[in-house]
Write a structure and sequence with these properties.
30% of the residues lie in helices and 18% in strands. It is α+β, with helices and mostly antiparallel strands. The protein has a single domain, classed as HIT family, subunit A (2-Layer Sandwich), CATH 3.30.428. It has a five-stranded antiparallel sheet, with helices on one face. The longest helix has 22 residues. It is globular, with a radius of gyration of 17 Å. The structure holds guanosine-5'-monophosphate. Guanosine-5'-monophosphate binds next to β2.
């Protein structure tokens, strides 16, 4: 049973900010930024590849609703939506969840990525686009 299922079942404490039949949201214990919140489907899908359309649609509506509430309540300067899938992507709890990370001009949260624009030709990009289209 995942740690989030234990939170859903009230077996461990958390600060719940939203709940309905399908979704729960609570403050992330790490508070990577002030107001860091997790939005979690009650059914323990492991990652994004397991989600079905219905839950994905509902879950994202809740993410939008809570992002607006967090903006109103905490007045951040910005906000990131983050979801890690797999160890390589930094996932540590294998029960699907979306991070809402309010951002402040003086916060210490790091999102880092190199720009690899110069490594790809126009043909590489066309091939890449086609691979993704063909897989749908
Ligand atoms: P991931 O690394 O899988 O994307 O994110 C997992 C998140 O769950 C982390 O940000 C971590 O702080 C949070 N977390 C882990 N255990 C608990 C817990 O017991 N309670 C709460 N509220 N958050 C937790």
């Amino acid at each position: 049973m995942s740690i989030f299922t234990k939170i859903i079942n009230r077996e461990i404490e958390s600060n719940i900010v939203y709940e309905d039949d399908l979704v729960i949201a609570f403050l992330d214990i790490s508070q990577a930024t002030y107001g860091h919140t997790l939005v979690v489907p009650k059914k323990p899908y492991e990652n994004i590849f397991e989600l079905d359309d219905e839950i994905a649609g509902h879950l994202y509506k809740v993410v939008v609703k809570l992002s607006k509430a967090i903006k109103k309540a905490l007045k951040p300067d910005g906000l990131n939506i983050v979801n890690n899938n797999g160890i390589a992507a930094g996932q540590s709890v294998f029960h699907y969840h979306i991070h809402i990370l309010p951002r402040y001009e003086d916060d210490d949260y790091i999102m880092f990525g190199y720009n690899h624009f110069e490594d790809y030709t126009k043909e590489d990009m066309t091939k890449l686009k086609d691979l993704i289209i063909e897989a749908q």
